[in-house]
Amino acid sequence: MSSYAATTISSQAAANRLLLRRKRAERRFQLYGILAISAALGFLVVFLASIVSRGYMGFVQTEVRLTVDFDQELIEAGSYRKMLRTSLSELFPNAGSSRAERRTLARLVSAGTVFVLRETVEADPAIIGTVEDVWVLASDPVDQFYKGRIDAALPEEERPISDASLARIAALEAAGRIDLRFNRSFFTRGDSRNPEEAGILAAIVGSALALLVTVVLSFPVGVMTAVYLEAFAPKNRITRLIEININNLAAVPSIVFGLLGLAVFLNVFGLPRSAPISGGLVLSLMTLPTIIISSRAAIRAVPPSFAEAAIGLGASRVQAIFHHVLPAAAPGTLTGAIIGMARALGETAPLLMMGMVAFVVEVPGGFTDPSTVLPAQVYLWADSPERGFAEKTAAATIVLLGFLLVMNGLAVYLRRKFEKQW
After folding, report:
1. Which helix or strand (DSSP H or E) is residue 178 part of?
2. What is the pTM assigned to this prediction?
3. What count of other Cβ atoms lies within 10 Å of the Cβ of residue 306?
4. What is the pLDDT of residue 5?
5. Contacting residues for 415 by C-beta, under 8 A, at least 6 apart
6. How far apart are CA 122 and CA 155, in angstroms?
7. What are the residues whose beta carbons fall under 8 Å from the beta carbon of 243, sequence distance 6 or more?
8. Distance CA 223, CA 112 (A)
9. Over the stretch 135-192, which tens digit does the pLDDT of each residue have?
10. So what's the pLDDT on residue 339?
11. What is the C-alpha to C-alpha distance for residues 93 and 81, in angstroms, rounded to an integer?
């Protein structure tokens, strides 16, 4: 065999070995990618399973059925508490008459039951003078025990519910007077110091009002800024500086926008603290860079022939942009706006600086009323020591994640529906 042939065979063998190494490296890279995706999905599943396992019980609540005598004299005197005591005493006549016994008996139901009875009478005055069965919320210790969160085998001093209360719960269960029912108050009430009465309606309304302010301010300003920078602004040092600052603002921590809002909107302009108008303004500043960047990318993706053809047919540059280019870029601009709103919905840090972490019981009726938002409500409940607030925290997180999934799904739907291939 000649030296040339030997060299050729050796070179071919070396090339084959190099090719095999490249293929092995490619397979390893694919394997690493699959492992990374699997790990990410695994962490996501564990995260969601943890939240759902803790929060699904927040959507149900233990209720007790009381037989209440709506005595006219007690109602006229406003003695709804005495009416409640009478109803409980008739259920448990052997409970005792001492103040401590009456207090222990009253702890079977929520502290807000008195107000429920009053609201029942106000909603239906014809009930006065009758005896009716009324389902009321159980207290938090009773609710946690009935859901299996408190171990009855523990010594009495180590659990938040007494042996006498356990016996009464068993009696109520035997009589069919206690049951787990859908927790309507979670969606129809504001915050409360009693876990069994706490709801997210005030936080949802506050989030909706703040997002409404955000979208009204940030969407048109962001789109118009993108149109100007892409179609009308001269390409000079000033516009390059503006573009760099917009890109940098998109990466600024959200707490910085909160500090800016605190210094400008509250201290300079004197806007009300803890109000949706103040929070919405801060969220508008925070979402503007996202909307501008996504809108510029959408406008840039439209073929230049759109504007050129319109101008060639006699349209002005403004008409060509607003009648042809901007409608064609609508999917991208809408997607950027929805993603910006989704980010704003999940923000807490800037709103902490604006005071929207307040304890809000009443549902806000306007843009200047005191309010909180859903992420801040989750933050408040997570810091509470009561067991009931732990499941309410997880349940509110599930609702928040649901809203975020809907908004991101809407963004994907709009993009696929209106997107065109050029």
Report:
1. strand 178-182
2. 0.84
3. 19
4. 62
5. 331, 332, 334, 335
6. 43
7. 229
8. 49
9. 999 998 899 899 888 888 888 888 888 888 888 899 899 989 999 999 988 998 888 8
10. 84
11. 17
Are the C-beta atoms of 95 and 89 separated by less than 8 Å?
yes
Which whole-number Å values give the CA distances from 19 to 6, 16, 31, 33, in the listed order? 20, 5, 18, 21
- Give the strand order in the sheet containing 131-137: 131-137, 60-69, 178-182
CATH of domain 201-418: 1.10.3720.10
Give me the residue label for tokens 């809408």. Answer: 334
Specify the amino acid at residue 366.
G
Q: If you search the block for the tokens 């309507």, which residue do you land on? A: 184
Report whether 296 contacts 329 (CB < 8 A): no
Q: For the chain, how big is the Rg over CA atoms in Å?
A: 31
* 3-state class (DSSP) for residue 347: coil
- Does the CA dihedral 277-278-282-283 come out positive or negative? negative
pLDDT tens sequence across 96-147 = 667 778 788 888 898 888 888 898 888 888 888 888 888 999 998 899 899 8
From residue 186, alpha-carbon distances to 181, 202, 218, 288 in Å are 12, 10, 32, 33
Largest CA distance in the chain: 122
d(CA 350, CA 355): 9
